[in-house]
């Protein structure tokens, strides 16, 4: 396993570059708990017919919609409180 650092401002671009690959993100929830999600971006097959899922990230909104591969449901990941990101054999520590 390789450890690297990634700046918080680069998180959104990095997630976009995953191109549907599975990654893990660890972040601090609003209630203070740490959460790790094995997830993907760009999954559209689990949407409700009336529901809309936004895949584009608004820089003013720190939350990113991801698809949780364990629960098979959409979740929101807070990029402002992200601590670690893992993709492939590389683990990235998020720095400010």
Instruction: Output the strand order for the largest sheet.
Output: 1-7-6-2-3-4-5
The shape, in one word, is: globular
Major sheet details:
7 strands, mixed
Q: Mean of residue pLDDT?
A: 86
Termini separation: 23 Å
Number of domains: 1
Multimeric organization: single chain
Q: Could you characterize what this model shows?
A:
Helix content is 7%, strand content 45%. By secondary structure, the chain is mostly beta strands. The chain has one domain (2-95): SH3 type barrels (Roll). A 7-stranded mixed beta sheet has the order 1-7-6-2-3-4-5, with no helix packed on it. The longest helix has 7 residues, at 11-17. The two termini are 23 Å apart. The mean pLDDT is 86.
Summary, kept brief:
The chain is 7% helix and 45% strand. The chain has 96 residues and is mostly beta strands.
Give a quick set of tags describing it:
SH3 type barrels, 96 residues, 7-stranded mixed β-sheet, 1 helix, 7 strands, mainly beta, single chain
